[in-house]
Amino acid sequence: MKRRSSGIDNGIGIGAHSSNDSNNTDLQSLLARLKAHAPVAERHVWLLNLLDWVRGPGQSVVASVGRVELFLDTLQARPDLQARLQQWWTVLNDTVDITPLLADFGFAPRTGLASELSARLKRKLLPGSPDTIDASELFMMALPSGFDAQWLMALTPELLARLVALLSGSDMHNTRWQRDLLDAMTYCAGQILSTGFAPELRLRMGAAARQAQPFHALIRDVESLRVEVLHGLRTPERLDASAQRLRERLDACRSAAASVYSHFEDNGISVGVVFRLRQLRARILRMRELLECVLSPKPAVHAVRLLAQLVKVGQERRSVRVLLASNLSLLAAKVAERSAETGEHYITRTRGEYLAMVQNAAGGGAVMAFTTLVKFGLYALALSAFWGGLLAGINYALSFVLIQLLHFTVATKQPAMTAPALAAKLKDLQGEGGVEAFVDKVTHLVRSQVAAVLGNVLVVFPAALGLALLWARMAGTPVLAPGQALKVLDSLHLLGPSLLFAAFTGVLLFASSILAGWTENWFVLHRLDSALQYNPRITQLLGARRAARWAHFLREHLSGLAANISLGLMLGLTPAFASFFGLGLEVRHVTLVAGQLGVAAASLGPDVVHQSALWWAVATVPLIGALNVGISFYMAFLLALRAHNVTVGERARIYAGLRARLRRAPLEFFLPMGAPVAKDSAQRTQQGSA
Are 349 and 681 in contact (CB under 8 A)? Predict the structure, then answer.
């Protein structure tokens, strides 16, 4: 205590001295309430209060370590308190089983993602009780924050040795701690064994992993280690050999589990199976940590490290966000990968591909002109909001599917598919010329988007205008009454909410791509293409050749069908559901907006060119297109970046390369310029030949 008050002559020393007096007073009051044979809840509350005192109000690691030292000094100076603490510690060890904490803390009690999510939500919302003999529950209440891991790791070996001596008294051997660790290893091995034998994992493992049977002898290896550790006449050589066998066995189990991921490449991903795989891998790592604690020549140091690690595990155990992020990341990667395969078809590199994109987009614009006319025809039915929205959604969905089957293009459907294709190129950034190749792909992508948007808009407007004039000539009345046409133009005014609606439509475009990837993954996971082709009932009903054609068609086009149908229904039904809640939310799709302008202009006649409302609406069209494309692309690109784990440094290199290309050759982002495209085409030809 004299050493602590050496700075009493200055202000800092006075403050520190006052703080030490306060800590000492609080500690004396705390120790006075120590009762070894108190009820369970009272004993545990005393432990919680002690750890609160160690943490202190300021969350300073140095101060917390100082309080631990003060605690040790105080008890060593009071033999009566030391004896009471040893009795309390003995009762705590006899009452609370530490084995589940060491072996099972941080793992889901059930094997399903949904059940674990429900358990975490309950843990967040419901308070815990110290009246428990569950070591895991007591641990989460006693060491609830990440700061606890910091001050635990800051405890020096000398302080830990003093603490062990204070708690154990004259009994300095580690037999009880070793038995607890070995029991935890046996418990953990049993969980690993049951998970490894689960049919949904075992059937997905590689053939070599199943033949090696790594899980079969795991319990035997753990029991062999137990004998070597606890046997009084063991030799270091036998103990080392037993530990090495167990390490090799755990590595084999981990490799067998990893082989399941190869099965996902061609057969789809189950989030539930991924969840079990992550649990299995974490249990194997926990068992390695327990093994190192058993073999450690400094058990107190390794025990504190293990406790600090469990504190961090407890933080993740409480987090719903961590659970969802960790278990959905692989599915996000697979969705991005499948979208990337589709998105490659939408990226043009040569002049021929560029012109083909314009032609396909023109075909899509022509179809969308009919879609726009049908949309206004549905208004004449005066249906309720839901049924009107449903029919509008079906109209959009059928049009999008028709465009897909005719191999035409809708510009706004591309970004959510092309962004993952672009992000797939990020894997090559480390190689020579990786950034330059990535910038090339960005220019190709932007150029493709420009071609598709121009093809859609420049065709849908005159096509819708012509169809509306033809209808007026045949029916003797315009498609829209003048008041309705003016209302359409006013709703598309640049200074109105159209740009906000366009950004929201970009979110819907991204959502449709996610649904498409999920649907395709579900189709592949459940092997429905194989079922369609080989199921006896289906082949008997359709015939073998027709069943094979249907299976092949769905395998190739299901992703596009899911994206088109979901997007159409969302565009039609979202305004209806929004109006139910009084939100007034609408959608603004650039191709449909251009078609609406054509119909409104035809209904108002030639004098419409003199109305400012038309030109305000025309000025809105390119911005709507940019927001549709930009928001959808940005969200899909963020998903792909997460899937590929792109670092901040790599992103900086990408941005620098893009700025350099913009300065050097800005027209490449809009038109194919010859040399770079020819070079890229030659590279693709060479890769294809390889």
Answer: yes
Q: 495 by DSSP, 3-state: which?
A: coil
Cβ atoms of 573 and 390 within 8 Å: the answer is yes
For the chain, give the percent of residues with pLDDT over 70. Answer: 84
pLDDT at 11: 38
* Residue given tokens 């080392």 in the structure block: 240
d(CA 617, CA 623): 10
Residue 121: the pLDDT is: 81
Contact present, 91 and 36 (Cβ < 8 Å): yes
Strands (E) located in 542-591: none
- In DSSP terms, 83 is beta-bridged to none
CA atoms of 259 and 119, how far apart (whole Å): 29
Tell me which amino acid residue 126 is: L
Its pTM stands at: 0.68
Residue type, 260: V
Pairwise CA distance, residues 392 & 576, whole Å? 10
Greatest Cα-to-Cα distance within the chain, rounded to the nearest angstrom: 108
Residues making up the chain, counted from first to last? 690
- Closest by CA to 229, choosing from 180, 172, 165, is 180
Task: Please give the C-alpha separations between residue 184 and each of 133, 152, 224, in angstroms, as whole numbers.
Answer: 17, 22, 15
No. of helices (H) and no. of strands (E), the chain: 30, 0
* CA distances to 14, 19, 34, 43, 311 from 56, in Å: 19, 11, 19, 20, 18
Residue that is written with structure tokens 């009071």 in the block: 78
Report how far apart the first and last C-alpha atoms of the chain are (Å, whole number). 78
Q: Give the HSE-up count for residue 453: Cα atoms under 13 Å, Cβ half-sphere.
A: 22
Highest-confidence segment of 262-276, 439-453, 584-598: 584-598
Structural element, H or E, at residue 204: none
Between CA 524 and CA 531, with CA 530 as vertex, the angle to 5 degrees is 105
636 vs 88, more confident: 88
Contact 180, 99 (CB under 8 A): yes
Q: Taken in order 441, 442, 447, 448, is the CA torsion positive or negative?
A: positive
Q: What are phi and psi of 643, to 5 degrees?
A: -65, -35
Q: How far apart are CA 546 and CA 548, in angstroms?
A: 5
| DSSP string over 374-385 | HHHHHHTT---H
Q: Report pLDDT digits (tens) over 521-571.
A: 788 888 898 999 999 999 999 999 999 999 999 988 888 899 899 999 999
The DSSP H or E segment spanning 79 is helix 79-95
